[in-house]
Write a structure and sequence with these properties.
mainly alpha
């Protein structure tokens, strides 16, 4: 059995941990190029982990933040969801150019060229599994924000929800 560590009441302990995670995410640093660290790295480490994003990482973040928004009702969660979705749409779905990843890694101590980062984004966007997952999250984000941009984006197939 897992016992709550921050409070005897499990509900208060859960709430405390959820808020700690959200606080960590909100306070996460930006890379020198101005892009939030979590939009360019799959693992947070103080010395900057050299690995890029993994698979459906941003789709899963949007899914989690949708639940977090329902729990907290914090408009900052929606703002962060928009940041994630807008970055993906600008750099992954539409073939835009991504800023070069300039967080220093402890192994290479140099920046990843913008062309390499843009190529990675296009490769990730070409994965049908990634596109499907992201499209579903964009539809959910549209329902929260009523922003039509999240339904209008296309990458080989429509992101609009189908009427039955």
């Amino acid at each position: 059995m897992i016992l709550p560590w921050s409070h005897d009441d499990p509900a208060r302990a859960y709430d405390h941990v959820v808020r700690l995670v959200w606080g960590f995410w909100q306070g996460m640093e930006r890379c020198p190029n101005g892009v939030p660290y979590y939009l360019q790295h799959q693992v947070w480490k103080p010395e900057h982990d050299p690995r890029g994003l993994g698979g459906d990482q941003l789709s899963m973040a949007l899914s989690s933040w949708s639940l977090l928004h329902g729990y907290l009702g914090d408009p900052g969660v929606v703002a962060n969801m928009r940041t994630i979705a807008d970055h993906w749409l600008a750099n992954g779905m539409t073939g835009g150019t991504a800023p070069g990843r300039t967080c220093r890694s402890r192994t290479t101590r140099r920046s990843t060229p913008a062309a390499t980062t843009a190529t990675w984004w296009r490769a990730r966007a070409s994965s049908s599994r990634t596109r499907r997952g992201l499209r579903a999250e964009l539809v959910d984000l549209h329902k929260i924000t009523d922003d039509p941009r999240y339904l209008e984006q296309r990458s080989g197939s429509p992101t609009r929800s189908r009427a039955t």
